[in-house]
Amino acid sequence: MYNQSDFNIDDEMIDELRDLGYELNDYSLSDSDFRDLDFDGYSTEDSGMILDVPYVPSDEKIVHSLLNLAEVTSEDTLYDLGCGDGRILVAAALERNAHGVGIDIDPMRINEAIEYAGHTGVEHLVHFAEADLMEVDISAATVVTLYLLDIINIKLRPRLLDELLPGTRIVSHAFNMGDWKPDQQQRCGSINLYKWIIPAKVTGIWEWQATNGDTYRVSLQQKYQYVTGTAWINGQAASLKNALLRGDLLELTVQADNSRPIRFLMRCQAKQLVAAEGDLQATPAVKIS
Ligand SMILES: C[S@@+](CC[C@H](N)C(=O)[O-])C[C@H]1O[C@@H](n2cnc3c(N)ncnc32)[C@H](O)[C@@H]1O
Questions:
Q1: Residue 138 Cα, ligand 1 centroid: separation in angstroms?
Q2: Of 49, 119, 212, 270, which residue is 20 to 30 A from 162 by alpha carbon distance?
Q3: Quick check: 285 pLDDT over 80?
Q4: Structure confidence by residue, pLDDT tens digits, 248-278
Q5: Would you say domain 204-287 falls under CATH 2.160.20?
Q6: Spacing, Cα 162 to ligand 1 middle (Å)
Q7: Bridge partners of 275?
Q8: Stated pTM of the model
Q9: Which of 38, 53, 90, 143 to mutate to test the pocket of ligand 1 (most atoms within 8 A of CB)?
Q10: Is the Cβ atom of 33 under 6 angstroms away from ligand 1?
């Protein structure tokens, strides 16, 4: 059986975990979120390995729901962090021709995954490596799949936000990301599935010219995908009616007194905000601080 001491639980996360309803002293795999876990006799004591999460495979229905939720196509490279027997990546390769990289710390799982990929004939699309998911380079992923624990998702969160490109999708079986709310959530039977889209970093003061000659300036603050701020037109305070960020797309609606609101749709590109739609924006928005 697994004990709390088998897991790398970091004391710094206590507050956030309490917000999630966990009592660390009681933290155990009998929590209701783990009701579907089947330990299958597997024990860390046999191998001396420290797992962050025990091995429990996602069932077929969940695998398909995760791939649908992430909208996986043949253009994607999936990273399954804690890949188990590789079933998510093999399904993505078989059904969608997607590339996959599976990481697991347990060599037994990696052997199973390589064997499974060979049996199903998708070994040219998938690669499996024995490594610690906390340390592996994930920057090439366009989709990340997780069946870990809230606590591990939260520990991974800064790396996901910093190292993945804006627009990368993350889907998680059963476990959330603390105060980073999902962009989408759905049920699969009694299980919650979550999806996040990595937001571009837009905090700062930005300025651009409109095609009518007006100079727009916005000061933006950001927490995850949520953006707030203030706006000016030609140096006069205006109202930032709307600021929506989804991946690398930022929609800003600015309104001066007694004027109609003007909506800009911009794409974050090479440290600029480039017009992504319409003909109202004459120059890319550049950061002035
Ligand atoms: C709940 S299973 C999920 C398996 C697979 N992703 C699925 O959904 O079918 C979690 C997996 O994470 C692996 N794991 C645990 N700690 C890990 C770590 N630090 N680095 C890499 N893999 C880890 C376990 O060996 C296990 O296979």
A1: 15
A2: 49
A3: yes
A4: 999 999 999 989 999 999 999 989 999 999 9
A5: no
A6: 22
A7: 266
A8: 0.87
A9: 53
A10: no
